[in-house]
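Annual report, structural modelling task.

Input specification for the EPU complex:
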Amino acid sequence: MDCLHIHGGLPLNGSVEVGGAKNAALPIMAASILASQPVRLIGVPELVDVRTLSLLLGHLGVEVKREGAGDLRIQTVDPRPTRADYDLVRRMRASFCVLGPLVARRGRAAVALPGGCNLGARPVDLHLAGLAALGADIYIQRGYVVARARRLAGATIDLAGPRGPSVTGTANILSAAVLARGRTVIWNAAREPEIVDLGRFLNKLGARIEGLGSDTIEVLGVTELGGAVHRIIPDRIEAATLLMAGAITGGAVRVNEVEPAHMSAVLSVLSATGADVHCGSGEVSVRSAGRLRPVDLAALPYPGVPTDLQAQFMALAAVADGASTIRDLVFPERFLHVDELNRLGARVVRTSGGARVDGVAQLSGAPVTASDLRASAALVLAALAAEGHSVVRRVHHLDRGYERLEAKLARLGARIARRQLTAVGSHQEPATA
Ligand code: EPU
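The model returned the following structure:
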């Protein structure tokens, strides 16, 4: 099992390229099931989650070939399989995005229920209600969602959930509606840039979708979709994480090949911490010196601050000059990073609605354990700021969503090295990376 050794306290400086967005690439790969011609995706990051979905698509008769860095060629070679096994779906919830495309294109799907995860309860009721409204016959059998339809029929679907719209729920319904007979209107659709990217990809295949980026999406169903070449949008979460690495270490970091418009709320909060934020065409830079200021933030659906950056902002708040409050209105239980940040010397207490963070002047290196993808990133950030040596364990979580994060941080001057976790208590100092 890999871990990251980090010697903190050094300011990070320089510029770094950001990869394609994981949360756009995954539903787009799943939606490639709908295509009757080959699909070429450009800018797909090399991530464990991408490999997991490629494996699942392979089991579903969809060949996924990597052709050079970032390029995927996807083509259906056998349209008969319709079963997404628990062994693959439980590894990654985004696997559930094959449900809509399978039932729309192949008339049947049996997809394992993904279950809960470290972010708290994660129901799929909105996905199922939406597909049922499109005319799919849906039932649960032995832990699998079975959905059947000869041809789906357009409908008006309200995707409002108790915590806002569902992102992958919108992806599933949208991907199914493109082949449904007639017109579908999705109210309270997710507005995330990753959903807009999915919609644009589907339109390139020949779908007729309007209203992308708003909360009302309209789809006029077509009978067949072709192929397409599509470039995945930049990963706004990776970009922000790298910028925060600059801010938390008192350095100056520029991220290239990004879309600043996708990051407005995030950049406002970064500015509120006192960091100097500058946006250019396809790039954003952050410079920071001295103590950061505390912030009060609530993670919300887009265009709000994303829940996928809540943990990383907590790392910043941990070293701010004063008390911050952090709430997560999307995943109210997504706070497993709190205890681990406290191991690094942070002073975070859970409150009923979130957490209160009393900033400290200096974190101190410690062994910590990552619980999920974004929590891992928060621990890496905190360890970069902490004085001395930290070991972040269970970084397989990090590898699900960040492409060689340690290499990018090392290029910015971090002393960080990946090692296999050897004996219990082993604490070798990393060489300068
Ligand atoms: N919800 C329901 N019913 C549903 C679906 C969701 O009540 O049928 C609730 C959830 O429990 C949650 C809220 O709605 O409280 C939002 O969940 P959503 O469905 O939007 O999450 P998701 O689609 O499963 C995607 C991302 C997550 C990201 C969330 C929120 C992908 C592959 N995953 O998950 O990304 O946190 O949206 O923005 O797009 C990550 O990358 O680390 C990650 C977890």
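The radius of gyration is 22 Å.
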